[in-house]
């Protein structure tokens, strides 16, 4: 796997409906994913078998939230801003000194490639620290098209 950095960038200006989950342990993720899928359906996004954009958001949500729960410090807050131009996903935790570090030269069978995956799914991504919280974010399109993945 090539070298990828997770760039230090401020959060883009996200305007739209805000969906938020407070998470304290990995066992809460299945319910959070189900709630996110429900919100997508209520907002009028097609089911995954018709359009994969919503499932890509759910996958990125799961990857960033599970990273924060495994490697960060509680509380973990996962936020999705559903805007007209796409989704802004922001996951924060209290481990502000622990930077997001994509795996480098790791056997894919050993895992740890979630940040690489989120970078490929997103049109932009980054992280920043605010008031003692580390925020890791990604912008995802609401429509899957032939496009180039975000560059580091």
Blueprint (SSEs and pairs):
Elements: E1 17-23, H1 29-42, H2 53-71, E2 76-83, E3 86-93, H3 114-121, E4 124-130, E5 133-140
Overall geometry comes to: globular
Helix content, binned percent: 25-40%
Number of strands: 5
- Mean pLDDT, to the nearest integer, reads 85
Concise overview:
The chain has a single domain, classed as Heat Shock Protein 90. Helices cover 27% and strands 25% of the residues.
Provide structural commentary:
There is one protein chain. By secondary structure, the chain is an alpha+beta fold. The protein has one domain: Histidine kinase-like ATPase, C-terminal domain (Heat Shock Protein 90). It is built from three helices and five strands. It has a five-stranded antiparallel beta sheet, with helices on one face. The relative contact order is 0.24. Pfam families: HATPase_c_2. Residues 25-138 form the Histidine kinase/HSP90-like ATPase domain.
Relevant terms:
152 residues, alpha+beta, Heat Shock Protein 90, 5-stranded antiparallel beta sheet, 5 strands, globular
């Amino acid at each position: 796997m090539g070298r990828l950095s997770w760039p230090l960038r401020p959060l883009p200006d996200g305007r739209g409906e805000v969906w938020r989950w407070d998470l304290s342990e990995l066992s809460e993720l299945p319910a959070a994913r189900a709630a996110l899928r429900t919100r997508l359906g209520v907002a009028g996004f097609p089911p995954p078998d018709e359009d994969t954009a919503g499932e890509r958001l759910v996958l990125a949500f799961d990857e960033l939230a599970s990273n924060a729960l495994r490697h960060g410090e509680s509380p973990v807050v996962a936020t999705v801003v559903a805007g007209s131009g796409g989704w802004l996903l922001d996951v924060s935790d209290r481990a502000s000194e622990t930077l997001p570090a994509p795996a480098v030269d790791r056997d894919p069978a050993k895992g740890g490639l979630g940040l690489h995956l989120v970078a490929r799914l997103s049109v932009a991504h980054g992280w920043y620290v605010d008031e003692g919280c580390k925020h890791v974010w990604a912008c995802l399109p609401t429509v899957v098209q032939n496009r180039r993945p975000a560059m580091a």
